[in-house]
Amino acid sequence: MKKILILMICSALFACSDDTTDVKDTFYLRNEGADMPIWVRGNLDADKIVIFFHGGPGDCAMCYRYYLKGMESEIAVAYWDQRIAGSSAGNADPASLTYEQFGEDAFFAVSLLRQQYPGKKIYIMAHSFGVELAWQFLTTGENQKMVDGLLVVNGTFSNLHWMEIMREWVVREAAAQEDNKTLEFAETHPVNATTVNDVWVDYYRKMLELNGNPLSLYENKKFVLNYVLFSPNTAMSQFAHGKAYKDYSEKVLFTFDKTDELSKITLPVKFLWGKKDGVVPIEVGYETEALLTGTTVDWTVFDDSWHEPFVSEKDKFIEAALSFVKSN
C-alpha cells in the first residue's frame, strides 16, 4: 500500500518564525520512494502562494530563489524539488520518472500546501520541463480546481512538436548566420516520430551553438556564492541525479503530448516568455495559446531574454508575475 508521509522541519539554518511576513516553513513529502523537500518562504499575510515547478527534469527549485526572492515580500513562494532532482532523497526507482508519477507528486505537493495553509489561493509557476508537469497535473481529473492560476515560463505541450519547432528555429538561425554545415544537417535529418529519439540531442547542441541560450547562471558570481553558501542544494546532491534520466530520455520524453487536452483548461493563465529563446522558441507559446480555447491568456514577452527570463530581466519578470497573481 502506498504510504505518504508529510513532515515539517524547523532547522537552525531556516528557523521557523512567528512573523508571517517572513515565513520559513520546510516540509518533506514522501511518495513512492521519493523524499521531496518543499521550502515555503515569504509573506503569508497575503492570501496567495506560488508553488514553483522547476525545470530539468532533474534541476532544483531553491537554487532559483536567488532570482525569484523578489516575489516574497508580497506573497509566499513554495520551492518544491521533484523526485530524483535537486535535494530530493529517498530510494525512488528511476523507472518512476514518468509523467503520471510526476503528476501524482504534484497533486500531493499542492494538497500539502492546501492542508497547511487553508484558505490561501495557490498558483503554479512552471518553467521549462515544469510546464510539462503542470499540464500533466492540470489535465488530470479535477486537479485544476485545486489551484487559482498558472504562470507558464518557456515550456511546451508536446515534446515531439517542440523538437519540430526547434528544428525550424535552427534552420532559420543557421540561414541567418550562414552556417551551411548546420543547414546541410537539417536538410538530411528530419524530425518526426520515427527519427526524434535519434536526432534531438544533435539539434539541441546545434541550437546552443547558434546562441539559442547563451546565458549561463554560473557566470553570475553572486548567484554562485548564494548557491554554495545559502542554498540547500549541493553539487553532490543535484548533479548526481543525472544518470537516472537515461531511460526517461529514451523511453518517456517523447510520449508527452497534451495537444488534445489543453482545451480542458479554464483557470487564468499567464505566459512569461523570453523572446530570443532557442530551447523552447516563442512559437511554441503562440501555439499553446491557440489550444487554450477554454480560457484567455495574458502575455509578457521579454525581448532581451532567452530560456530564463527571470534571470536576464529579473525585475520585469517579478513585476509581471506579481501583477498576474494579485489580479486573479
From TrEMBL:
GO molecular function list: hydrolase activity
Superkingdom to which the source organism belongs: Bacteria
Gene3D superfamilies from the UniProt entry: alpha/beta hydrolase
UniProt-listed Pfam families: Hydrolase_4
Domain Serine aminopeptidase S33: 46-313
InterPro entries found in the cross-reference section: AB_hydrolase_fold, Hydrolase_4
Record bears the keyword Signal: yes
PROSITE patterns registered for this protein in UniProt: PROKAR_LIPOPROTEIN
Keywords, comma-separated and alphabetical: Hydrolase, Signal
Signal peptide: 1-17
Protein's name in the database: Alpha/beta hydrolase
